[in-house]
Amino acid sequence: MVQHQPIRSNTADREIPDKLYFRIGEVARLCEVPAYVLRFWESEFPQLKPNKGGTGQRLYRRRDVEMALRVKTLLYDEGYTIPGARQLLKTESRGKGPSLLPGIDEPPDIQRLKRLRKEMRDLLAMLQKPAGVKPTAAVHPIRSVKPHKAAAADGPRSLFGDPQSASESQL
Fold first, then answer.
1. Which of 13, 90, 115, 121 reaches 20 to 30 Å from 29, CA-CA?
2. Do the beta carbons of residue 157 and residue 166 sit within 8 Å?
């Protein structure tokens, strides 16, 4: 009886020979996929672009072979779809790598975060004080208001400060 090889083999253990260029047949053997699959991947993944020699034959460099092995691992071993693998390779090529939080590309500055935390706590403490509590620093008016001596003796003052007109308006 014929024994079948597993469909999914580990491509990370594959050793790439030390050569400058590889032909498509050699890359197909290294990746254990047919050559037409490599040609299809070239059309789907912009990162996989081998050079073409003078005769039009594809010449893969070492990084192209590594990229083909990475594509195979994503599609066959990790179960990514083609668009999902394309997106992952796009973010990896930008130097971001897969991140848990979108928009965070570098580790945060710890000292800056500690300062921000202290400021936020200070703001929270200020907001939690009751509205009737006066600040600790004394607040002085710009000018003091002194009552008019004649107005206090004669009766109520009008809006214009003349005690006489206030009494006349009451008539």
1. 90
2. yes
